[in-house]
Amino acid sequence: MPETAMPFRIARIQAWSLRVPVRTPVATSFGVMHNRPAVFLRIEDAAGAAGWGEVFANWPAAGAEHRVNLLIDDIADLVLGREWNDPAEMFGELSRATHIRALQCGEPGPFRQVIAGLDIAAWDMAARRHGLPLAKLLSSEAADRVPVYASGIHIDAAAAVIAAARAAGFRGFKVKVGFDRTSDPAKVIECSRQLLPGESLYADANQAWTREEARHFLKAVTEAGLGWIEEPIACDAPDGDWIDLARLNVPLAAGENIAGTDDFDHVLSLGALRFVQPDVCKWGGVSGNLAVARDTLRRGHIYCPHFLGGGIGLIASAHVLAAAGGAGLLEVDVNPNPLRDALASSSDFVRDGYWHLSPRPGLGIDGIPAELHDHVTLWRETG
Protein backbone atom coordinates (compact mmCIF):
# COMPACT_ATOMS: atom_id res chain seq x y z
CA MET A 1 0.00 0.00 0.00
CA PRO A 2 1.12 3.62 -0.48
CA GLU A 3 3.28 5.15 2.23
CA THR A 4 1.82 8.66 1.81
CA ALA A 5 -0.53 9.92 4.55
CA MET A 6 -4.21 9.46 3.73
CA PRO A 7 -6.31 10.29 6.82
CA PHE A 8 -9.97 11.05 6.14
CA ARG A 9 -13.32 11.51 7.84
CA ILE A 10 -16.53 10.78 5.92
CA ALA A 11 -19.23 13.37 6.51
CA ARG A 12 -21.80 12.34 3.90
CA ILE A 13 -22.81 9.15 2.08
CA GLN A 14 -25.06 9.01 -0.98
CA ALA A 15 -26.21 5.81 -2.69
CA TRP A 16 -28.18 5.03 -5.85
CA SER A 17 -29.66 1.79 -7.14
CA LEU A 18 -30.21 1.70 -10.88
CA ARG A 19 -31.84 -0.81 -13.22
CA VAL A 20 -31.97 -0.97 -17.01
CA PRO A 21 -34.17 -3.56 -18.79
CA VAL A 22 -32.34 -5.45 -21.51
CA ARG A 23 -33.83 -6.84 -24.68
CA THR A 24 -31.72 -10.00 -24.54
CA PRO A 25 -31.47 -11.48 -21.01
CA VAL A 26 -28.04 -12.44 -19.73
CA ALA A 27 -28.05 -16.21 -19.20
CA THR A 28 -25.74 -18.23 -16.96
CA SER A 29 -25.88 -21.86 -15.96
CA PHE A 30 -27.50 -20.94 -12.61
CA GLY A 31 -30.03 -18.32 -13.73
CA VAL A 32 -31.00 -15.46 -16.02
CA MET A 33 -30.68 -11.69 -15.53
CA HIS A 34 -33.59 -9.83 -17.11
CA ASN A 35 -32.19 -6.38 -16.36
CA ARG A 36 -28.82 -4.83 -15.60
CA PRO A 37 -28.63 -3.49 -12.03
CA ALA A 38 -25.97 -1.46 -10.25
CA VAL A 39 -25.40 0.34 -6.94
CA PHE A 40 -23.24 3.44 -7.12
CA LEU A 41 -22.20 5.35 -4.01
CA ARG A 42 -20.48 8.63 -3.27
CA ILE A 43 -18.69 9.67 -0.08
CA GLU A 44 -17.72 13.20 0.86
CA ASP A 45 -15.63 14.72 3.63
CA ALA A 46 -16.29 17.97 5.47
CA ALA A 47 -14.12 19.93 3.03
CA GLY A 48 -16.09 18.67 0.02
CA ALA A 49 -13.57 16.11 -1.28
CA ALA A 50 -15.43 13.13 -2.73
CA GLY A 51 -14.96 9.60 -4.02
CA TRP A 52 -17.09 7.13 -5.97
CA GLY A 53 -17.59 3.41 -5.43
CA GLU A 54 -19.74 0.52 -6.62
CA VAL A 55 -21.43 -2.33 -4.73
CA PHE A 56 -22.10 -5.75 -6.28
CA ALA A 57 -25.81 -6.08 -7.05
CA ASN A 58 -26.24 -8.60 -9.87
CA TRP A 59 -27.88 -11.34 -7.81
CA PRO A 60 -30.53 -11.84 -6.50
CA ALA A 61 -32.93 -9.75 -8.59
CA ALA A 62 -33.84 -7.58 -5.58
CA GLY A 63 -30.21 -7.04 -4.62
CA ALA A 64 -29.63 -3.44 -5.72
CA GLU A 65 -32.26 -1.73 -3.60
CA HIS A 66 -31.48 -3.99 -0.65
CA ARG A 67 -27.83 -2.97 -0.65
CA VAL A 68 -28.65 0.75 -0.73
CA ASN A 69 -30.85 0.31 2.34
CA LEU A 70 -28.24 -1.85 4.05
CA LEU A 71 -25.60 0.83 3.55
CA ILE A 72 -27.71 3.70 4.83
CA ASP A 73 -29.61 1.94 7.62
CA ASP A 74 -27.09 -0.54 8.99
CA ILE A 75 -23.52 0.42 8.08
CA ALA A 76 -23.41 4.21 7.76
CA ASP A 77 -23.48 4.64 11.55
CA LEU A 78 -20.14 2.84 11.74
CA VAL A 79 -18.56 5.15 9.17
CA LEU A 80 -19.77 8.72 9.52
CA GLY A 81 -17.67 11.14 11.50
CA ARG A 82 -14.90 8.72 12.35
CA GLU A 83 -11.27 9.52 11.61
CA TRP A 84 -9.53 6.84 9.54
CA ASN A 85 -5.80 6.73 8.84
CA ASP A 86 -6.34 5.23 5.40
CA PRO A 87 -8.95 3.22 3.44
CA ALA A 88 -7.36 -0.11 4.37
CA GLU A 89 -7.87 0.65 8.06
CA MET A 90 -11.54 1.43 7.41
CA PHE A 91 -11.96 -1.78 5.42
CA GLY A 92 -10.52 -3.92 8.19
CA GLU A 93 -12.46 -2.25 10.98
CA LEU A 94 -15.81 -2.37 9.13
CA SER A 95 -15.26 -6.05 8.34
CA ARG A 96 -14.76 -6.76 12.05
CA ALA A 97 -17.55 -4.45 13.24
CA THR A 98 -20.22 -5.95 10.96
CA HIS A 99 -19.34 -9.60 11.60
CA ILE A 100 -22.03 -10.18 14.22
CA ARG A 101 -24.61 -8.14 12.30
CA ALA A 102 -24.00 -10.33 9.24
CA LEU A 103 -24.26 -13.50 11.31
CA GLN A 104 -27.47 -12.28 12.92
CA CYS A 105 -29.26 -11.93 9.57
CA GLY A 106 -27.37 -14.64 7.69
CA GLU A 107 -26.23 -12.22 5.01
CA PRO A 108 -22.43 -11.98 5.02
CA GLY A 109 -22.34 -11.37 1.26
CA PRO A 110 -24.28 -8.09 1.17
CA PHE A 111 -22.30 -6.71 4.11
CA ARG A 112 -19.03 -7.56 2.37
CA GLN A 113 -20.25 -5.99 -0.85
CA VAL A 114 -21.31 -2.71 0.74
CA ILE A 115 -17.97 -2.48 2.56
CA ALA A 116 -16.19 -3.14 -0.74
CA GLY A 117 -18.03 -0.23 -2.34
CA LEU A 118 -17.10 2.09 0.53
CA ASP A 119 -13.47 1.00 0.24
CA ILE A 120 -13.40 1.76 -3.50
CA ALA A 121 -14.87 5.22 -2.85
CA ALA A 122 -12.33 5.94 -0.11
CA TRP A 123 -9.43 5.03 -2.38
CA ASP A 124 -10.90 7.15 -5.18
CA MET A 125 -11.10 10.11 -2.78
CA ALA A 126 -7.52 9.53 -1.60
CA ALA A 127 -6.17 9.42 -5.15
CA ARG A 128 -8.07 12.58 -6.09
CA ARG A 129 -6.56 14.38 -3.12
CA HIS A 130 -3.07 13.43 -4.31
CA GLY A 131 -3.87 14.35 -7.92
CA LEU A 132 -2.99 10.85 -9.13
CA PRO A 133 -4.80 8.10 -11.03
CA LEU A 134 -5.66 5.41 -8.51
CA ALA A 135 -3.22 2.90 -10.02
CA LYS A 136 -0.33 5.37 -9.63
CA LEU A 137 -1.28 6.06 -6.01
CA LEU A 138 -1.23 2.32 -5.33
CA SER A 139 2.07 1.78 -7.15
CA SER A 140 4.43 4.25 -8.76
CA GLU A 141 5.30 1.50 -11.23
CA ALA A 142 1.70 0.87 -12.28
CA ALA A 143 1.12 0.27 -15.99
CA ASP A 144 -1.01 2.67 -18.00
CA ARG A 145 -2.67 -0.19 -19.85
CA VAL A 146 -3.65 -3.81 -19.08
CA PRO A 147 -4.54 -6.78 -21.31
CA VAL A 148 -8.27 -7.26 -21.69
CA TYR A 149 -10.68 -10.00 -22.76
CA ALA A 150 -14.37 -10.07 -23.74
CA SER A 151 -16.64 -12.09 -21.47
CA GLY A 152 -20.30 -12.98 -21.01
CA ILE A 153 -20.49 -14.66 -24.42
CA HIS A 154 -23.21 -17.31 -24.52
CA ILE A 155 -21.88 -20.36 -26.31
CA ASP A 156 -24.90 -20.45 -28.64
CA ALA A 157 -24.22 -16.90 -29.86
CA ALA A 158 -20.45 -17.09 -29.79
CA ALA A 159 -19.64 -16.75 -33.49
CA ALA A 160 -21.38 -13.40 -33.95
CA VAL A 161 -20.42 -11.97 -30.56
CA ILE A 162 -16.75 -12.90 -30.90
CA ALA A 163 -16.64 -11.27 -34.34
CA ALA A 164 -18.12 -8.06 -32.91
CA ALA A 165 -15.75 -8.12 -29.93
CA ARG A 166 -12.79 -8.64 -32.25
CA ALA A 167 -13.83 -5.59 -34.25
CA ALA A 168 -14.03 -3.61 -30.98
CA GLY A 169 -10.39 -4.37 -30.17
CA PHE A 170 -10.54 -7.55 -28.08
CA ARG A 171 -8.13 -10.44 -28.65
CA GLY A 172 -9.37 -12.79 -25.93
CA PHE A 173 -12.88 -14.21 -25.55
CA LYS A 174 -14.68 -16.09 -22.76
CA VAL A 175 -17.73 -18.20 -23.54
CA LYS A 176 -20.45 -19.25 -21.10
CA VAL A 177 -20.92 -23.02 -20.89
CA GLY A 178 -22.71 -25.40 -18.52
CA PHE A 179 -26.01 -25.43 -20.40
CA ASP A 180 -25.88 -28.73 -22.30
CA ARG A 181 -23.33 -31.37 -21.33
CA THR A 182 -23.75 -33.14 -24.65
CA SER A 183 -23.32 -30.25 -27.09
CA ASP A 184 -21.19 -27.73 -25.19
CA PRO A 185 -17.81 -29.37 -25.90
CA ALA A 186 -18.37 -29.46 -29.66
CA LYS A 187 -19.46 -25.82 -29.65
CA VAL A 188 -16.34 -24.79 -27.75
CA ILE A 189 -14.11 -26.64 -30.21
CA GLU A 190 -15.86 -24.93 -33.11
CA CYS A 191 -15.26 -21.54 -31.46
CA SER A 192 -11.57 -22.33 -31.11
CA ARG A 193 -11.34 -23.06 -34.82
CA GLN A 194 -12.59 -19.55 -35.60
CA LEU A 195 -9.80 -17.81 -33.66
CA LEU A 196 -7.21 -15.74 -35.46
CA PRO A 197 -3.48 -15.90 -34.70
CA GLY A 198 -2.72 -14.26 -31.36
CA GLU A 199 -6.25 -14.74 -30.00
CA SER A 200 -7.28 -16.80 -26.96
CA LEU A 201 -10.42 -18.62 -25.84
CA TYR A 202 -11.62 -19.20 -22.27
CA ALA A 203 -14.73 -20.87 -20.83
CA ASP A 204 -16.86 -20.24 -17.73
CA ALA A 205 -19.24 -22.85 -16.30
CA ASN A 206 -20.50 -20.76 -13.36
CA GLN A 207 -20.22 -23.73 -10.95
CA ALA A 208 -22.51 -25.87 -13.14
CA TRP A 209 -20.98 -29.33 -12.83
CA THR A 210 -20.09 -32.15 -10.50
CA ARG A 211 -16.48 -33.27 -10.54
CA GLU A 212 -17.25 -36.11 -12.96
CA GLU A 213 -19.20 -33.84 -15.27
CA ALA A 214 -16.33 -31.36 -15.27
CA ARG A 215 -13.84 -34.15 -16.01
CA HIS A 216 -15.95 -35.22 -18.99
CA PHE A 217 -16.04 -31.67 -20.37
CA LEU A 218 -12.32 -31.04 -19.92
CA LYS A 219 -11.35 -34.29 -21.61
CA ALA A 220 -13.74 -33.54 -24.48
CA VAL A 221 -12.30 -30.08 -25.24
CA THR A 222 -8.59 -30.91 -25.23
CA GLU A 223 -8.09 -29.83 -28.83
CA ALA A 224 -9.70 -26.40 -28.17
CA GLY A 225 -6.61 -25.21 -26.28
CA LEU A 226 -8.62 -23.28 -23.70
CA GLY A 227 -6.71 -20.68 -21.71
CA TRP A 228 -8.74 -21.69 -18.65
CA ILE A 229 -11.99 -23.22 -17.44
CA GLU A 230 -13.62 -20.98 -14.84
CA GLU A 231 -15.63 -22.37 -11.92
CA PRO A 232 -16.22 -25.83 -13.40
CA ILE A 233 -17.49 -26.96 -9.98
CA ALA A 234 -18.89 -25.19 -6.93
CA CYS A 235 -16.41 -22.90 -5.22
CA ASP A 236 -16.99 -24.80 -1.94
CA ALA A 237 -16.47 -28.24 -3.49
CA PRO A 238 -14.02 -30.47 -1.59
CA ASP A 239 -10.35 -29.62 -2.04
CA GLY A 240 -9.78 -33.04 -3.54
CA ASP A 241 -12.17 -32.30 -6.39
CA TRP A 242 -10.24 -29.15 -7.36
CA ILE A 243 -6.90 -30.96 -7.10
CA ASP A 244 -8.24 -33.79 -9.27
CA LEU A 245 -9.41 -31.40 -12.01
CA ALA A 246 -6.13 -29.49 -11.90
CA ARG A 247 -4.38 -32.63 -13.15
CA LEU A 248 -6.27 -32.48 -16.44
CA ASN A 249 -5.55 -30.54 -19.59
CA VAL A 250 -7.07 -27.12 -18.89
CA PRO A 251 -5.88 -24.56 -16.29
CA LEU A 252 -8.45 -23.77 -13.58
CA ALA A 253 -9.74 -20.31 -12.67
CA ALA A 254 -12.00 -19.14 -9.83
CA GLY A 255 -12.34 -16.49 -7.15
CA GLU A 256 -15.44 -14.35 -7.66
CA ASN A 257 -17.28 -16.41 -5.04
CA ILE A 258 -14.40 -16.60 -2.58
CA ALA A 259 -14.20 -13.99 0.17
CA GLY A 260 -11.68 -13.18 2.87
CA THR A 261 -7.90 -13.30 3.04
CA ASP A 262 -7.95 -16.63 4.90
CA ASP A 263 -10.02 -18.31 2.19
CA PHE A 264 -7.81 -16.92 -0.57
CA ASP A 265 -4.74 -18.03 1.37
CA HIS A 266 -6.21 -21.54 1.54
CA VAL A 267 -6.96 -21.57 -2.20
CA LEU A 268 -3.48 -20.39 -3.07
CA SER A 269 -1.90 -22.92 -0.73
CA LEU A 270 -3.94 -25.69 -2.35
CA GLY A 271 -2.29 -24.91 -5.67
CA ALA A 272 -5.16 -26.05 -7.88
CA LEU A 273 -5.95 -22.64 -9.39
CA ARG A 274 -3.69 -21.13 -12.01
CA PHE A 275 -5.84 -18.00 -12.30
CA VAL A 276 -7.21 -16.27 -9.18
CA GLN A 277 -10.21 -13.99 -9.73
CA PRO A 278 -11.51 -11.94 -6.78
CA ASP A 279 -14.18 -9.35 -7.55
CA VAL A 280 -13.49 -5.81 -6.31
CA CYS A 281 -17.21 -5.13 -5.71
CA LYS A 282 -18.11 -8.48 -4.08
CA TRP A 283 -15.40 -8.59 -1.44
CA GLY A 284 -12.40 -6.56 -0.44
CA GLY A 285 -12.70 -3.46 -2.55
CA VAL A 286 -9.29 -2.08 -3.50
CA SER A 287 -7.71 -2.91 -0.13
CA GLY A 288 -8.54 -6.62 -0.11
CA ASN A 289 -8.11 -7.23 -3.82
CA LEU A 290 -4.71 -5.58 -4.10
CA ALA A 291 -3.45 -7.64 -1.16
CA VAL A 292 -4.76 -10.88 -2.71
CA ALA A 293 -3.36 -9.89 -6.12
CA ARG A 294 0.13 -9.36 -4.74
CA ASP A 295 -0.01 -12.60 -2.75
CA THR A 296 -1.21 -14.42 -5.87
CA LEU A 297 1.75 -13.15 -7.89
CA ARG A 298 4.21 -13.86 -5.10
CA ARG A 299 3.13 -17.51 -5.11
CA GLY A 300 3.50 -17.86 -8.86
CA HIS A 301 -0.18 -17.71 -9.85
CA ILE A 302 -1.92 -15.16 -12.07
CA TYR A 303 -4.31 -12.47 -10.85
CA CYS A 304 -7.23 -11.84 -13.23
CA PRO A 305 -9.96 -9.71 -11.60
CA HIS A 306 -13.52 -10.90 -12.08
CA PHE A 307 -16.07 -8.24 -12.87
CA LEU A 308 -19.72 -8.09 -13.97
CA GLY A 309 -21.43 -4.82 -13.15
CA GLY A 310 -21.43 -1.09 -13.79
CA GLY A 311 -18.72 1.24 -14.98
CA ILE A 312 -17.27 2.31 -11.63
CA GLY A 313 -16.32 -1.20 -10.54
CA LEU A 314 -14.88 -1.99 -13.96
CA ILE A 315 -12.59 1.04 -13.86
CA ALA A 316 -11.55 0.19 -10.29
CA SER A 317 -10.71 -3.36 -11.39
CA ALA A 318 -8.49 -2.00 -14.16
CA HIS A 319 -6.59 0.22 -11.71
CA VAL A 320 -6.00 -2.60 -9.22
CA LEU A 321 -4.75 -4.88 -12.01
CA ALA A 322 -2.43 -2.16 -13.31
CA ALA A 323 -1.05 -1.54 -9.82
CA ALA A 324 -0.55 -5.25 -9.08
CA GLY A 325 1.37 -5.97 -12.28
CA GLY A 326 1.79 -9.50 -13.59
CA ALA A 327 0.33 -11.15 -16.66
CA GLY A 328 -3.34 -10.89 -15.70
CA LEU A 329 -6.27 -9.97 -17.91
CA LEU A 330 -9.10 -7.49 -17.28
CA GLU A 331 -12.59 -8.94 -17.73
CA VAL A 332 -15.06 -6.87 -19.73
CA ASP A 333 -18.59 -8.20 -20.18
CA VAL A 334 -19.71 -7.44 -23.74
CA ASN A 335 -23.44 -7.87 -23.22
CA PRO A 336 -25.43 -4.61 -23.51
CA ASN A 337 -25.24 -2.61 -20.27
CA PRO A 338 -25.83 1.18 -20.24
CA LEU A 339 -24.79 1.31 -16.56
CA ARG A 340 -21.33 0.20 -17.66
CA ASP A 341 -21.01 1.95 -20.99
CA ALA A 342 -22.06 5.41 -19.80
CA LEU A 343 -18.96 5.45 -17.57
CA ALA A 344 -16.58 2.90 -19.07
CA SER A 345 -17.37 2.17 -22.70
CA SER A 346 -15.07 -0.25 -24.48
CA SER A 347 -14.99 2.17 -27.40
CA ASP A 348 -13.27 4.71 -25.14
CA PHE A 349 -10.83 2.39 -23.34
CA VAL A 350 -10.12 -0.74 -25.45
CA ARG A 351 -7.59 -0.76 -28.29
CA ASP A 352 -5.54 -3.59 -29.75
CA GLY A 353 -6.24 -6.05 -26.95
CA TYR A 354 -5.57 -3.59 -24.09
CA TRP A 355 -7.59 -1.46 -21.70
CA HIS A 356 -5.98 1.98 -21.54
CA LEU A 357 -6.35 3.68 -18.16
CA SER A 358 -7.37 7.31 -17.92
CA PRO A 359 -4.67 9.72 -16.64
CA ARG A 360 -7.29 11.64 -14.65
CA PRO A 361 -7.08 11.64 -10.81
CA GLY A 362 -8.71 8.79 -8.91
CA LEU A 363 -11.00 6.69 -11.06
CA GLY A 364 -11.63 9.62 -13.38
CA ILE A 365 -15.37 9.69 -12.61
CA ASP A 366 -17.23 12.96 -12.02
CA GLY A 367 -20.71 11.61 -11.32
CA ILE A 368 -23.64 9.61 -12.65
CA PRO A 369 -24.18 10.66 -16.29
CA ALA A 370 -27.46 12.42 -17.05
CA GLU A 371 -28.65 9.65 -19.37
CA LEU A 372 -28.78 7.25 -16.41
CA HIS A 373 -30.93 9.40 -14.13
CA ASP A 374 -34.18 7.90 -15.43
CA HIS A 375 -32.96 4.45 -14.39
CA VAL A 376 -32.55 5.27 -10.69
CA THR A 377 -34.90 3.09 -8.64
CA LEU A 378 -33.82 4.28 -5.19
CA TRP A 379 -31.70 7.16 -3.92
CA ARG A 380 -30.77 7.74 -0.29
CA GLU A 381 -28.23 9.79 1.63
CA THR A 382 -27.14 10.36 5.19
CA GLY A 383 -24.73 12.60 7.03
TrEMBL record:
Q: Which Pfam families match?
A: MR_MLE_C, MR_MLE_N
Q: Where is the Mandelate racemase/muconate lactonizing enzyme C-terminal domain?
A: 155-255
A GO molecular function held by the record = hydro-lyase activity
Q: Which UniProt keywords apply?
A: Magnesium, Metal-binding
Cite a single GO BP annotation: carbohydrate catabolic process
Q: Which cofactor does it need?
A: Mg(2+)
CDD domains from the xrefs? MR_like (cd03316)
Magnesium among the record's keywords?
Answer: yes
Per its record, how is this protein called by name?
Answer: Mandelate racemase/muconate lactonizing enzyme family protein
